[in-house]
Amino acid sequence: MKPTLTCLLLIAGAFLPLIAEARAGDFVTPTVEVSGSQITYEDDLNFELLDLAIQRQLDAFDQGVDLKGRVKFGETWFPKTILRDSLVLFQELGRGARECMTEKMRGECFERFNRSVRTRFRVYRPSVKSTRFTAYYSPDFEGSLSPSDRFRVPLYRTPEDPALKESTREQIIYDGVLSGKGLETVYLDTDLFELYSLQIEGGGRVRVDLGDGVRVMKHISFDGMNAQPLRFFSKLMVERGYLQPTQTSYDQQRSVFLGRPEIQRELFNASPSYVYFKLTDEEPVGIHGIPLTERRSLAFDRRHYPASGLLNFIKVNVNGKDVTRFMLSQDTGGAIKGPARADLYFGYGQEARIAAESLGGYGSQYFLIKKK
To answer: Cβ(223)–Cβ(204) under 8 Å?
Structure first.
């Protein structure tokens, strides 16, 4: 027997909520809800710089970062404004905990803080239970606006010509396709491996020699990419027998790269991705132009978490010590792929590099959303 028109309408009506659930501006996170009572919240930095990271994010929201639409955590849809509301509430609790620690024992203050967080936030984790953590940093350089025997490695801004913009790393470095076109932003006193590392990290600082003893500090900021594939030198060196799988630290890679000039062009050819840079007076920025805060900003895969300002609590063991802290999603990266993947920003210079290199492994990650 054929179904009647009424039956068909009833059947269609039953599926309408499923069809209408996702709307323009909405996004779904690959997360599941968990019990916050099973989590002990501990910030190993005692909330240092967290207020700054939150305020930078709130300023971005106030200056027009889109909060229209909804976001789905677990099985629940929230208005996107919940992201801002969660940060405002958490900023209040964090400030209260810091003030508490000026008068009372740290343990007592964190016990009180834990009670507040468990009472006022819902907690979610990625659907893949363990998150893979890495870290990145911003290297420091010496530079000049003019080339010389010392300052030999140029950084280029993004070419306006689409064909030039798509030039490979090999063409830019070895064939000089951008040389002499007025695209040089600064010349660095460095080597080609450190140039590769700068492009992986996405930014840094340079003390620019202006002549007559005048030197100014500038930020090396991301200005675009050539849309070519990226392959990490560590993996290429292992695949080709230049390094053992257990010997892929920064210093080991650089030693092999510089000690074997004959393999350098080969590696650049196999990893044609190239990053363009500009000099700025501002700190490196992440998505939505938000300045990154060292040890508080992290990078996600934007295919899974397209919004900035997601409040995270992370826990990962590094060299036998637990790193437990609150962080905000404020950046992205081409190598950060997957629903349970996070790259932590550690700041500037050699100390940050050593700390970033030591972090790598699996741990726990949670998203905190203010209860309605």
So the answer is: no
Question: What is d(CA 35, CA 19) in angstroms, rounded to the nearest whole number?
Answer: 30
Query: What's the number of CA atoms in the CB half-sphere (13 Å) around residue 173?
Result: 21
Q: How confident is the model at residue 167 (pLDDT cuts 50, 70, 90)?
A: very high
Distance between CA atoms of residues 290 and 84, nearest Å? 14
Task: Name the nearest CA neighbour of 348 among 53, 139, 172, 114.
Answer: 139
Query: In this structure, are residues 223 and 277 in contact, taking their beta carbons and an 8 Å threshold?
Result: yes
Query: Between 2.40.240.50, 3.40.50.740, 2.60.40.10, 3.40.50.300, what CATH number should domain 138-280 receive?
Result: 2.40.240.50
Quote the pTM value. 0.76
Angstrom distance (rounded) from CA 98 to CA 109: 8
Q: How far apart are CA 284 and CA 140, in angstroms?
A: 13
Answer left, alpha or beta for residue 109, where phi above 0 means left and psi between -120 and 50 means alpha: alpha
Q: Are 112 and 100 within 8 A, CB to CB?
A: yes
Residue 331: φ, ψ to 5°? -150, 170
- For residue 258, is it left (φ>0), alpha (ψ between -120 and 50) or beta? alpha
Q: Rg of the Cα trace of the chain?
A: 24
DSSP strands (E only) in 157-200: 184-188
- 275 phi and psi angles, rounded to 5 deg: -110, 135
Structure token pair of residue 50 = 């967290």
Q: Phi first, then psi: what are they for 225, rounded to 5°?
A: -140, 165
Q: Collapse the DSSP code of 167 into the 3-class scheme (helix H, G, I; strand E, B; otherwise coil) and give the result.
A: coil
Where b means 16+ CB within 10 Å and e means fewer, 277-314 reads: bbbeeebbbbbbebbbbbbbbbbbbbebbebbbbbbbb
In tens, the pLDDT along 269-316 reads 999 999 999 999 888 788 888 989 999 999 999 899 988 999 999 999
